[in-house]
Structures are given as structure tokens and as C-alpha cells.
């Protein structure tokens, strides 16, 4: 019986010495494989999951796809499932109950899927669902038409419900040897489709929920408080643990985003960036399964190049991270303020624009004071609306906040813009976060699952705001965007290298004071031609922003919330780090086992997309 093999022979329990989580003690070792080999009846099975070996594709060659003669046989999948102790899941698209063709049609269940489709936690609890269906290929949306057709599209074919490290190693070794596309899904938040992949075997990290407070963590470079965080833990779970232990942890503003997966891998911006830099700067060690199937530690003293790249070099590129040790900081108080203004019979468009410009003029003093903001400028039904949601001032008092904002508020008053800021002092981070960004608030009730827009963003260096001529040019790139009725969701923030670390976080982030996001909107029931047009639209909208903040002058874009069609993405997303990141990628993953669109090294691969109008993940992955 194979499940017997799995428990007894393959999962060598690494006892006592290993400092990891319980689930990291179950590892696939060379000794375990050897003992499987020596039992002749099992040697074929052992061959499926050996380390290292696997094809190196030549240009034009592709990963195996369902239906190919090289696709694993039913009995091989079944052996794999046994080796995985029954944790292999054959993908059922989350909305399959809405369709008769899949065989699980159920109108009531379809209604449940439909009414929960905008809730991130609903997708997180599913082994393969992701939150932005455009990249999946929109092949199985919750629909009213049960006679439509639901297909796998960019969903993987199989997913492993991971509960220990050995399962990741077994799945990865199987995928590499069988020339399968390999996908890592944590929460499925990725805006670019990186947690999708047609024809793939996926590892689903969601259930690795361990989190441990380390009051006195010691390494060569750090001694102090830290958390060890499992790959499936969310930002909210980290914030709650930090609150419980009276410390500050750096996370993002969306509570359901994964902490140790794509967020830290992509750098991770955070309301505390004005004090401590990027979230990735806090990482002290990673436990990771690398492309050859080995389980290693990456830290300053162990595999330092890998450690460098894992901090900001992008998700799904260097390996499967199973946990992170991240430093935390003393508890810090903050001041939060929300305010807004809009055009009206007494507030003209011209005044509104002057008010926005005045705010932008303060990005340098505001970020110098360590503050962060999240704001929205929208246009609807003839009215412009500016909403500060909110201004977040860590380590400030009401007095220092008032002093900092007085020049702007005075300027607004002179313009005839009256605001009524609701300003609150918070002793602790979690209540401040909860009041403004949790799922219970209008801002935090993040609506996912949509197909109505393509996002894009730009990171603007300090010089764009500090140098008067550059500021004028920057305003000249932003104002027409707004005048055309397009929205900006933005942040003032400056995640400088405040801890003095050396890592893979894009050099662009270190000089930034503004992060501006926009989107190209799409009609319902979008056609491939409309998607293609939206791709041109977002690139067109971003063009003036790129020109005023080019990569050659320190501008760029945030890779985690980016436009998948961003030209020159290597420099824009990864800054000066790109050449080194690529070298490390080639060293640790020479066969390209890990692929992510716009990931480091992905320029030598292509997803041969079905006719979608955009580079989706619904197609064969091939070497260029
Ligand atoms: C509503 C919303 C709000 C957001 N707010 C913020 C914010 O405030 N600050 C910020 O910085 N970002 C923010 N983001 C962006 C977010 O950081 C990225 O989408 C991030 O990639 C999500 O990571 P994940 O692991 O949760 O998602 P997934 O989609 O599951 O994974 C994202 C990528 O990471 C890879 N990956 C996941 N787990 C692992 C692992 N264990 N090992 C290796 N690779 C892995 C995946 O393969 C994929 O490539 C936001 C996104 C959304 C949708
Ligand atoms: C899904 O939606 C239904 C209503 O249709 C609701 O009762 C249920 O609680 C939701 N489930 C989840 C997991 O959000
Ligand atoms: C995944 O595994 C966990 C145990 O680790 C189990 O509780 C859960 O039900 C499984 N989920 C699915 C969808 O199989
Ligand atoms: C749009 O504005 C008009 C005039 O100000 C108003 O009567 C109408 O209710 C508004 N519509 C919406 C959807 O807000
Ligand atoms: C303000 O500008 C918008 C967009 O150009 C326009 O629709 C609106 O009529 C203008 N309002 C006034 C009062 O001029
Ligand atoms: C917070 O502010 C105090 C002084 O007001 C300063 O001494 C301290 O260094 C600040 N903390 C951080 C983390 O910047
Ligand atoms: C001001 O903020 C506090 C804290 O979030 C909130 O309880 C209160 O309702 C707000 N007041 C107004 C007028 O919005
Ligand atoms: C910037 O623009 C303003 C008018 O909008 C002008 O008065 C000023 O001279 C310009 N500054 C520079 C350096 O070009
Ligand atoms: C955020 O907090 C501010 C200040 O306490 C409050 O005025 C505002 O209403 C909150 N925002 C949301 C979206 O709840």
C-alpha cells in the first residue's frame, strides 16, 4: 500500500535538532528515497520523485499539457496521490456548480458562489481559485446560464493541499521530472495572474497557518524580537499576533493578503514604511524548497544570495517558501485622520484641481515626517471627489500631526476648500488599522473577483516632487489624467532603506515619495478585442507617468500591483537589482521550474495564450 510507504519511509521525520515548525520536520530526504529504491516493488515509484533530474527545455519546446502523450498516466497520478498521503486534489473550478457541463451542477451552490465571489476569503479557502479571473481566462465565471461551458482555463489541473514540507518536495520533484508546469497558490490575490497556470500541478499553501513569537531571536546580524510565520498566514493574522505580544509588525493594508508569500517576495509596502522601510527588509530567514527539490534555509549566513533575492525579488521565482522569520519592533502609537472634499456649486473644478496640486506639493514634508496615506481621486456623475482614507502618521501626536498638516490645510482654506478632518490618536496599531482598513470598513471591504478593470501604477521618485521644474512636469502628467475623468488611487509614502539592509527590493522604492495607481475599465461581458483595447488603454494612460518618471531617473512600478503589459518591466519592477536577481535565478533554478509572468527570468518563456487579447495564464508554457 502506497500510503503506507508515504508514512513510514518517505517522510523522514527530522527530529530534535531542527528549529522549524512541526510541518517542516516532515521532509523528503535522500536516505528516505534510497530506502524506497531498495525495496524493488517501490523503485518505480521512487523514480517519480527523485531530486534534481528533469528536462531542460530548448527554444520552442513546451511544458507537458493535458492530452499530450507525455502527460502522466492515471496510475502515475494515483501513485503521486499515495505518496502525498491522499492530499492531491483534482481541480474543480470554484464556479463549476453553475454549469451543467462539469457534472456538479447545483443552482443553490451556484448562488452561494456568486454571492461570495467578491469576498477574498472565499477564494482563499478554495484550493485553486484566484481573485482576478481575467488572468485565468474567464473560462468558468459564476453565471446565470447553466448551459454555458465551464472549462479549467488557467486553473491548474491538480493541487496539493499542503500540510508538510515533504509534500511540497514530492510534488515539485514529480512536476520537474514529468516536465509539468508548477504553480504556487497562497491566497490567490495576485493582480497579474501569477498564482494561475494552465496544465499545472499546484501547491496550495493556505493551511500552513503556524505563527510563533520569538522574544529573543539571535542571528549573526540581529538579536531581538521576531515572528516565525508560516506560508499560509495572512496579514491580519500577523497584526493580531503582534498586538497580542505588544509589538509592531510590518504588513500591508489589505488584511486577507498572504504575509510570507507574494507580499514579502514582492517587497511589501506598509503603513509603517516611514519608520522601518519595506516589509521585506524585516525578513531574517526563509525556509524554502528549491528547484532541485531540496529544503534549505536562506539567511545572511546560509545561502546568502538566495536570501538576498527572496527579499523583494518576486513570488514564485526562487522556490517555495514554507516560513519566514521577520523582525518586529516596539509598539508604536499613531495618529489617523480622514477627510475629503468634492466639487459642488461652491467648489469649482479649477479649485478642486488647485487643492489636489497643493496636496502633492506636500509629499516631501509629509514623507520626511514618516507618514503614509491612502487616498482616492474619483470622478463620477460630473463630480470630482477627493478622499483621504486615511492619512496615517505613525509615532505622531495630535500636536505634531496638526503642525505637519497646517500649511496644507491653510492653503486649502485660502482656496475656499473646507474640510473637517476626523483625527484620532491611537495608542496601538491594531485598533487604528481596524477602524480604517479592516474588512468591516468601506475601504477595507476589498472587492475582488471582478473583470471590470486592468490595473497599472507608477512609482515617482522624490526629485519629481522636490525639484520645482520636475514638479511642474509631474503635475502636467497627472492633471490631464484627472481632467479626462480617470481615477487615481494613491499613496504618499517613502519606504527608504531605513534599516540599512542590502537586499533584492527594487532600488526604485528607496527614493519614492508617491505611488499612484489607475485602471482601464472594461464593459461587462468583455470580448477579446475589448481586452486588447484595454491593454492599450492602460499603457496609454501610464505613458505620461512613465515619461516624467522614467526608469533611467529612478522611476518604476510596483511589481505586485502592476500592469502585466508594462514595457521594460525588468527595470521598472526590479530597478538596479535586476541583473543580480537574474544571476541568482539562473544559479538556483537553471531549468526554469518556477515561472511567473513578469518574474525574474520570465523573458525566456511564453504562455501561448488562447485568444484572450491579453497575456493570460490560460495556455501552454513554452520556452522562447
Ligand atoms: C485588495 C488588495 C490589496 C493589496 N494591498 C497591498 C498592500 O497594502 N501592500 C502591498 O505591498 N501589496 C498589496 N497588495 C498586493 C499583494 O502584496 C500581492 O498581490 C501579493 O502577491 C499577494 O501575495 P499572496 O501570497 O497573498 O497571493 P498569491 O496570489 O497566492 O501569490 C502571489 C505570488 O506569490 C507566489 N507565492 C505565493 N506563496 C508563495 C510561497 N510560499 N513561496 C513562493 N512563492 C509564493 C505565487 O506563486 C504568486 O506568484 C494588495 C493586493 C490586493 C488584491
Ligand atoms: C456565501 O453566501 C451565502 C449567501 O448566499 C452566505 O450565507 C454565506 O455565509 C457565504 N459564505 C461565505 C463563506 O462567505
Ligand atoms: C486540506 O487539509 C487540511 C488539513 O491540513 C484539511 O483540514 C482540509 O479539509 C483540507 N482541505 C481540502 C479542500 O482538502
Ligand atoms: C447625478 O447628478 C444629478 C445632478 O446633480 C443628480 O440629480 C443625480 O441624482 C446624480 N446621479 C447619481 C447616480 O448620483
Ligand atoms: C468639471 O469637469 C468635468 C469633466 O471635464 C465636467 O464634466 C464638468 O461639467 C465640469 N464642471 C464644471 C462646473 O465645469
Ligand atoms: C518616535 O519619535 C521619537 C521622538 O518623538 C523618537 O525619539 C523615536 O526615535 C521615534 N521612533 C521611531 C521608530 O522613529
Ligand atoms: C471619527 O473617527 C472615529 C474613529 O474611527 C469614529 O468612531 C467616528 O465615528 C468618526 N466621526 C465622524 C464624524 O466620522
Ligand atoms: C512651475 O509652474 C508655475 C505655474 O504653474 C510657474 O509659476 C513656475 O515658474 C514653474 N516653475 C518652474 C521651475 O518651471
Ligand atoms: C478611519 O479613521 C478616521 C479617523 O479616526 C475616521 O474618521 C474614518 O471614518 C475611518 N475610516 C473608515 C473608512 O472607517
TrEMBL record:
Residues 1-20 form the signal peptide. It comes from the Eukaryota. Pfam families: BBE, FAD_binding_4. Residues 152-331 form the FAD-binding PCMH-type domain. Keywords: Oxidoreductase, Signal. Belongs to the oxygen-dependent FAD-linked oxidoreductase family. This is FAD-binding PCMH-type domain-containing protein. It comes from Apiospora phragmitis. The lineage of its organism: Eukaryota, Fungi, Dikarya, Ascomycota, Pezizomycotina.
Amino acid at each position: 500500500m502506497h500510503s503506507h510507504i508515504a508514512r513510514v519511509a518517505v517522510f523522514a521525520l527530522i527530529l530534535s535538532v531542527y528549529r522549524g515548525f512541526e510541518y517542516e520536520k516532515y521532509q523528503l530526504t535522500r536516505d528516505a528515497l534510497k530506502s524506497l529504491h531498495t525495496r524493488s516493488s517501490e523503485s518505480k515509484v521512487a523514480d517519480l520523485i527523485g531530486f534534481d533530474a528533469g528536462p531542460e527545455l530548448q527554444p520552442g519546446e513546451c511544458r507537458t499539457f493535458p492530452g499530450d502523450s507525455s502527460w502522466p498516466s492515471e496510475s502515475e497520478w494515483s501513485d503521486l496521490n499515495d505518496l502525498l498521503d491522499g492530499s492531491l486534489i483534482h481541480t474543480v473550478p470554484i464556479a463549476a456548480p453553475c454549469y451543467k457541463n462539469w457534472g456538479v451542477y447545483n443552482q443553490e451552490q451556484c448562488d452561494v458562489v456568486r454571492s461570495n465571489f467578491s469576498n477574498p476569503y472565499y477564494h482563499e479557502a478554495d484550493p485553486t481559485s484566484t481573485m482576478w479571473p481575467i488572468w485565468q481566462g474567464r473560462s468558468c465565471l459564476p453565471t446565470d446560464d447553466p448551459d454555458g461551458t465551464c472549462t479549467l482555463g488557467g486553473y491548474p489541473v491538480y493541487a496539493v493541499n499542503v500540510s508538510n514540507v515533504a509534500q511540497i518536495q514530492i510534488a515539485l520533484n514529480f512536476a520537474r521530472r514529468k516536465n509539468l508546469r508548477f504553480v504556487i497558490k497562497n491566497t490567490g490575490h495576485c493582480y497579474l495572474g501569477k498564482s494561475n497556470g494552465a496544465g499545472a500541478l499546484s501547491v496550495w499553501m493556505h493551511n500552513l497557518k503556524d505563527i510563533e513569537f520569538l522574544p529573543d531571536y539571535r542571528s549573526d546580524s540581529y538579536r531581538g524580537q521576531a515572528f516565525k510565520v508560516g506560508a499560509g498566514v495572512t496579514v491580519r493574522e500577523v497584526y493580531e499576533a503582534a498586538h497580542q505580544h505588544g509589538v509592531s509588525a510590518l504588513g500591508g493594508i489589505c488584511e486577507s493578503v498572504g504575509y510570507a508569500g507574494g507580499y514579502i517576495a514582492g517587497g511589501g509596502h506598509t503603513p509603517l514604511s516611514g519608520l522601518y522601510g519595506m516589509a521585506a527588509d524585516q525578513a531574517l530567514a526563509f525556509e524554502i524548497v528549491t528547484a532541485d527539490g531540496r529544503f534549505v534555509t536562506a539567511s545572511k549566513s546560509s545561502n546568502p544570495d538566495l536570501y538576498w533575492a527572496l527579499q523583494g525579488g518576486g513570488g514564485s521565482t526562487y522556490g517555495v517558501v514554507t516560513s519566514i522569520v521577520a523582525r518586529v519592533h516596539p509598539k508604536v502609537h499613531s495618529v489617523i485622520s480622514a477627510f475629503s472634499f468634492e466639487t459642488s456649486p461652491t467648489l469649482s473644478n479649477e479649485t478642486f484641481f488647485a487643492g489636489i496640486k497643493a496636496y502633492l506639493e506636500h509629499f516631501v514634508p509629509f514623507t520626511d515626517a514618516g507618514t503614509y496615506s491612502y487616498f482616492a481621486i474619483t470622478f463620477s456623475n460630473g463630480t470630482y471627489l477627493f478622499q483621504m482614507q486615511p492619512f496615517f502618521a505613525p509615532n505622531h501626536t495630535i500636536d505634531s500631526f496638526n503642525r505637519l498638516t497646517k500649511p496644507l490645510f491653510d492653503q486649502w482654506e485660502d482656496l475656499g476648500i473646507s474640510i473637517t478632518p476626523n483625527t484620532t490618536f491611537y495608542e496601538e496599531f491594531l485598533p487604528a488599522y481596524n477602524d480604517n482598513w479592516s474588512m468591516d470598513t468601506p475601504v477595507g471591504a476589498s472587492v475582488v473577483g471582478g473583470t471590470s478593470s486592468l490595473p497599472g501604477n507608477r512609482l515617482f521618485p522624490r526629485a519629481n516632487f522636490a525639484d520645482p521644474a520636475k514638479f511642474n512636469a509631474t503635475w502636467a502628467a497627472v492633471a490631464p489624467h484627472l481632467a479626462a475623468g480617470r481615477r487615481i488611487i494613491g499613496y504618499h509614502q517613502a519606504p527608504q532603506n531605513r534599516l540599512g539592509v542590502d537586499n533584492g527590493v527594487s532600488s526604485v522604492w528607496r527614493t519614492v515619495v508617491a505611488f499612484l495607481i489607475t485602471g482601464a475599465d472594461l464593459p461587462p461581458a468583455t470580448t477579446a478585442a475589448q481586452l486588447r483595447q484595454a491593454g492599450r488603454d492602460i499603457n496609454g494612460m501610464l505613458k505620461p507617468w512613465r515619461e516624467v518618471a522614467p526608469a533611467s531617473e529612478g522611476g518604476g512600478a510596483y511589481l505586485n500591483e502592476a500592469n502585466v503589459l508594462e514595457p521594460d518591466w525588468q527595470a521598472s519592477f526590479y530597478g538596479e537589482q535586476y541583473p543580480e536577481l537574474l544571476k541568482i535565478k539562473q544559479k538556483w533554478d537553471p531549468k526554469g521550474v518556477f515561472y511567473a509572468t513578469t518574474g525574474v527570468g520570465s523573458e525566456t518563456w511564453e504562455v501561448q495564450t488562447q485568444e484572450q487579447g491579453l497575456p493570460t495564464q490560460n495556455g501552454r508554457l513554452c520556452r522562447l
